[in-house]
Amino acid sequence: MRKYLTIILILAITTASAKPKHDFVRIKTTMGECIIMLYNQTPKHHDNFLKLTKEGFYNGTLFHRVIQEFMIQGGDPSSKNATPGQSLGSGDLGYRVDAEFRDSLFHKRGVLAAASDGNPEKASSASQFYIVQGKKWTDTSLDELRIKRMNNRVIPEPQRKVYKEIGGSPHLDQTYTVYGEVVKGIEMVDAIASVKKSASNRPLEDIKMEVSILKKKEVRKLEKQLGLKNNTL
User: Fold this and answer.
1) What is the pLDDT of residues 85-125, one digit of tens each?
2) Are 216 and 70 in contact (CB under 8 A)?
3) Could you say which DSSP state residue 126 is in?
4) Where are the domains of the chain?
5) What's the rounded Cα separation, in Å, for the pair 90 and 125?
6) Which of 93, 159, 172, 204 is the least buried, fewest Cβ under 10 Å from its Cβ?
7) Phi and psi (nearest 5°) for 112?
8) What three-state secondary structure class fits 38?
9) Distance (Å, rounded) from C-alpha 160 to C-alpha 155?
């Protein structure tokens, strides 16, 4: 009997101390907050985002470019002390992150993706990111988009279904790296996307962010709620 109690105790301790299979971050703003799960299939972007978050880099930066039915963009280091009307979007940290395109990761509503400066390698900005709001598409509009903006690249049928039922920005696929998704608080994205803005799409009132990493206890709870039983996402 004592032997079995010891085994149960060891299993309980092991389970309690086991590392969660996923990493989540919380983005807080004056317009609400959201929780984002970082994908394990994009380790370079995953680790870089966690590193910057741990350093507190994102705290005080702005969502400096917002376009309704498209996306909200932030993470420009020069936005921390930006003056009203200052042009933003070109700030960087002096390095890029290699592109990590995955066929299963695409620009559906709510995904986190890396901004890029149009370099030939399609490498990502070290810090700037965007969250897709997107819009819903029809078969006709998707076919038109393929011809006009996607070099006639075929959109897999499961992804077409998502773009029609949930929405997104399909023309960005395989050009910008997708490396996470909003699992709670998509309302924050909608609220920010709808604010009044300048001709350069900068919100007229600054929207600062605070980004933090969720602790193990909250992560385990989220993994259970989301039914995440493996390490693929």
Assistant:
1) 999 999 999 999 999 999 999 999 999 999 999 999 999 99
2) no
3) S
4) 25-82+91-215
5) 10
6) 204
7) -100, 130
8) strand
9) 6
Q: Tell me how far apart the alpha carbons of residues 81 and 60 are, in angstroms, rounded to a whole number.
A: 8
How far apart (Å, rounded) are the C-alpha atoms in residues 165 and 167?
6
Cite the DSSP H helix spans in 55-169.
139-149, 157-165
Measured distance CA(225)–CA(207) in Å, rounded = 30
The Cα 181–Cα 113 span in angstroms is: 9
25-82+91-215: CATH topology: Cyclophilin (2.40.100)
Tokens of 229: 């039983």
Token pair in block for residue 39: 């994908």
- Residue 44's H or E segment, with its range, is helix 43-54
Q: Read off the pLDDT of residues 175-202 as tens digits, 9 standing for 90 and up.
A: 999 999 999 999 999 999 999 999 999 9
